[in-house]
Design a protein that fits this description.
- There is one protein chain.
- By secondary structure, the protein is of the alpha+beta class.
- The protein is built from 3 helices and 7 strands, in the order βααββββββα.
- Strand 2 and strand 3 form a beta hairpin.
- Helix 1 packs across helix 2.
- The radius of gyration is 14 Å and the shape is globular.
Protein backbone atom coordinates (compact mmCIF):
# COMPACT_ATOMS: atom_id res chain seq x y z
CA UNK A 1 0.00 0.00 0.00
CA UNK A 2 1.29 3.43 -0.87
CA UNK A 3 -0.38 5.63 1.63
CA UNK A 4 -3.02 6.46 4.14
CA UNK A 5 -4.67 9.74 5.03
CA UNK A 6 -5.03 10.59 8.73
CA UNK A 7 -6.75 13.50 10.44
CA UNK A 8 -7.59 14.02 14.09
CA UNK A 9 -9.72 16.74 15.59
CA UNK A 10 -11.44 17.63 18.84
CA UNK A 11 -15.17 18.33 18.64
CA UNK A 12 -16.94 20.06 21.54
CA UNK A 13 -20.07 17.87 21.57
CA UNK A 14 -20.89 14.50 23.08
CA UNK A 15 -19.49 11.38 21.42
CA UNK A 16 -22.88 9.98 20.40
CA UNK A 17 -23.56 13.02 18.22
CA UNK A 18 -20.19 12.66 16.52
CA UNK A 19 -20.79 8.95 15.93
CA UNK A 20 -24.19 9.64 14.34
CA UNK A 21 -22.59 12.30 12.12
CA UNK A 22 -20.14 9.77 10.65
CA UNK A 23 -22.32 6.65 10.55
CA UNK A 24 -25.83 7.66 9.46
CA UNK A 25 -27.20 9.02 6.19
CA UNK A 26 -28.70 12.00 8.03
CA UNK A 27 -25.29 12.83 9.48
CA UNK A 28 -23.24 12.20 6.33
CA UNK A 29 -25.57 14.35 4.23
CA UNK A 30 -24.84 17.34 6.49
CA UNK A 31 -21.12 17.44 5.76
CA UNK A 32 -19.96 14.93 3.11
CA UNK A 33 -22.53 13.46 0.72
CA UNK A 34 -25.27 15.16 -1.22
CA UNK A 35 -27.53 12.18 -0.53
CA UNK A 36 -26.85 8.81 1.08
CA UNK A 37 -28.56 5.72 2.42
CA UNK A 38 -27.45 2.79 4.54
CA UNK A 39 -27.29 1.42 8.08
CA UNK A 40 -24.51 1.40 10.63
CA UNK A 41 -24.37 -2.40 10.80
CA UNK A 42 -21.53 -4.75 9.92
CA UNK A 43 -21.88 -5.88 6.30
CA UNK A 44 -24.54 -3.30 5.42
CA UNK A 45 -24.38 -1.46 2.11
CA UNK A 46 -24.10 2.34 1.90
CA UNK A 47 -25.04 4.34 -1.19
CA UNK A 48 -23.13 7.62 -1.37
CA UNK A 49 -24.37 10.10 -3.95
CA UNK A 50 -22.33 13.17 -4.84
CA UNK A 51 -24.03 14.01 -8.14
CA UNK A 52 -24.96 12.26 -11.41
CA UNK A 53 -21.39 11.22 -12.21
CA UNK A 54 -20.54 10.19 -8.65
CA UNK A 55 -22.91 7.55 -7.30
CA UNK A 56 -20.63 5.47 -5.11
CA UNK A 57 -21.18 2.42 -2.93
CA UNK A 58 -19.48 1.04 0.15
CA UNK A 59 -19.84 -1.79 2.62
CA UNK A 60 -19.59 -1.43 6.39
CA UNK A 61 -16.45 -3.33 7.46
CA UNK A 62 -16.20 -2.18 11.09
CA UNK A 63 -18.97 -1.07 13.39
CA UNK A 64 -18.82 -0.65 17.15
CA UNK A 65 -21.81 1.58 17.98
CA UNK A 66 -20.78 4.87 19.53
CA UNK A 67 -17.07 4.20 18.98
CA UNK A 68 -15.95 2.88 15.57
CA UNK A 69 -17.31 3.01 12.03
CA UNK A 70 -15.56 2.04 8.78
CA UNK A 71 -16.67 1.49 5.20
CA UNK A 72 -14.83 -0.07 2.27
CA UNK A 73 -15.46 1.55 -1.07
CA UNK A 74 -16.82 -0.94 -3.62
CA UNK A 75 -17.95 1.39 -6.44
CA UNK A 76 -16.21 4.75 -6.78
CA UNK A 77 -13.48 6.55 -8.65
CA UNK A 78 -10.89 3.82 -9.46
CA UNK A 79 -8.35 5.18 -6.94
CA UNK A 80 -10.94 4.89 -4.15
CA UNK A 81 -12.14 1.34 -4.86
CA UNK A 82 -11.07 -1.04 -2.05
CA UNK A 83 -9.91 1.87 0.13
CA UNK A 84 -11.39 2.16 3.61
CA UNK A 85 -12.79 5.25 5.27
CA UNK A 86 -12.83 4.94 9.05
CA UNK A 87 -13.78 6.96 12.09
CA UNK A 88 -12.84 6.33 15.71
CA UNK A 89 -14.84 8.34 18.23
CA UNK A 90 -13.18 8.82 21.63
CA UNK A 91 -15.27 10.38 24.38
CA UNK A 92 -13.58 12.84 26.72
CA UNK A 93 -14.71 14.93 29.65
CA UNK A 94 -15.34 18.16 27.77
CA UNK A 95 -14.95 17.13 24.14
CA UNK A 96 -14.88 14.21 21.76
CA UNK A 97 -11.77 13.29 19.82
CA UNK A 98 -12.40 12.11 16.25
CA UNK A 99 -9.67 10.02 14.63
CA UNK A 100 -10.17 9.75 10.88
CA UNK A 101 -8.35 7.56 8.38
CA UNK A 102 -8.67 6.81 4.68
CA UNK A 103 -6.46 3.80 4.12
CA UNK A 104 -5.42 1.50 1.32
CA UNK A 105 -4.38 3.92 -1.39
CA UNK A 106 -2.33 2.14 -4.06
CA UNK A 107 -0.20 5.16 -4.87
CA UNK A 108 0.31 8.69 -3.52
CA UNK A 109 -0.87 10.27 -6.77
CA UNK A 110 -2.60 13.60 -7.40
CA UNK A 111 -6.02 12.18 -6.39
CA UNK A 112 -4.53 11.03 -3.07
CA UNK A 113 -3.21 14.53 -2.37
CA UNK A 114 -6.48 16.22 -3.40
CA UNK A 115 -8.47 13.76 -1.28
CA UNK A 116 -6.33 14.51 1.77
CA UNK A 117 -7.09 18.21 1.40
CA UNK A 118 -10.81 17.59 0.75
CA UNK A 119 -11.13 15.37 3.83
CA UNK A 120 -9.69 18.14 5.99
CA UNK A 121 -12.21 20.59 4.55
CA UNK A 122 -15.17 18.21 4.95
CA UNK A 123 -14.20 17.36 8.53
CA UNK A 124 -14.07 21.08 9.31
CA UNK A 125 -17.60 21.47 7.90
CA UNK A 126 -18.74 18.58 10.14
CA UNK A 127 -17.11 20.13 13.22
CA UNK A 128 -18.76 23.51 12.56
CA UNK A 129 -22.14 21.84 11.99
CA UNK A 130 -21.94 19.84 15.22
CA UNK A 131 -20.58 22.64 17.39
CA UNK A 132 -22.43 25.63 15.95
CA UNK A 133 -25.30 24.27 13.86
CA UNK A 134 -23.85 25.74 10.67
CA UNK A 135 -25.39 24.14 7.60
CA UNK A 136 -23.37 24.48 4.40
CA UNK A 137 -25.00 23.60 1.09
CA UNK A 138 -23.27 20.76 -0.70
CA UNK A 139 -21.85 22.86 -3.55
CA UNK A 140 -20.06 25.24 -1.12
CA UNK A 141 -18.52 22.73 1.32
CA UNK A 142 -15.01 22.86 -0.08
CA UNK A 143 -15.06 26.66 -0.23
CA UNK A 144 -15.92 27.66 3.35
Amino acid sequence: MAGDIFHELPIAVEAERVYRAVSTPTGLDQWWTKRSSGRAQLGAQFDLWFGPEYHWQAQVTECAPGHLFEIEMSAATPDWVRTRVGFEVVAGESRTQLRFRHSGWQEPNEHFRISSYCWAMYLRVMKRWLEHGEAVEYERRLHV
